[in-house]
Amino acid sequence: MTAASLDLPPAPEPLPHPVVDNHCHLDIGRGPAGAVPWDVREAIDAAAAVGVRRIVQIGCDLRRAAFALEMARTHPEVVAGVALHPNEAPRLAEAGGLDAAIETIAQLAAAHPRVRAVGETGLDHYRTGPEGRAAQVASFAAHIDLAKRLDKTLVIHDRDSHQEVLDVLDAEGVPDRWVMHCFSGDADFARACLDRGAYLSFAGTVTFKNAAPLRNALVVTPQDRVLVETDAPYLTPHPYRGRTNASYLVPMTVRTMAEVRGDDLGDLCAAIDANSEQAFGGSW
Fold first, then answer.
1. Is 247 helix (H, G, I), strand (E, B) or coil?
2. Residue 11: CATH number of its domain
3. What's the domain range around 219?
4. What's the mean pLDDT in 58-78?
5. Taking the model in full, what pTM does it have?
């Protein structure tokens, strides 16, 4: 599918130093073309042209996790994360298939060294009501254990569940490397995560006009703990909010981050690049 048919915004100015899009869904489509995603090779090349030379592809159900593994195997720019999204857990539990699905994720996570992460897992109190939350906690705890056993990075989805996420992490113990994907809290929550060793990943939401608490969180995050992501095809940065997102738009978010933090753009890019390697277990 072409860029025009997917309603993709124009390419931004390239960054002065390469960075990593540390959370992307290359297999999910959006826009007038419906569920058809942008061609993977075109998406990777467009990102590289503006300085986004590496991507972490996230698969958060069994089919998409298998896709993430295949992308990591076949594209040198990509490493993978595999997990069951927290909103998958209640559906699988109701059908009696949660334990088997977690075992399949464990097999995929161990299948290739370029699967660097277990995620996105976590809690979501926005789309799942109280009746499904026990299944989410059980799935989250199992994924934490898996990340620790396999020495993988834990990637956490947290929507409207800040304290509950911390409660599970405190009960289970954090792995050596863990990332708060699409960080959505304020400065106090940022400090609570950082105190537990987290990397905080900021998406296009940090550019939104109503995101002052999120920008405050960005300011208090040490430069060696900052990551950037798209969560593409979602969360397209301002002024293209609502259109299809892709890794090549990361420079828009990074420039806002540098401005908010008062950082030199090149220095912040270099830090993000190095942090991504630290967060995901080395270079690729």
1. helix
2. 3.20.20.140
3. 4-279
4. 98
5. 0.96
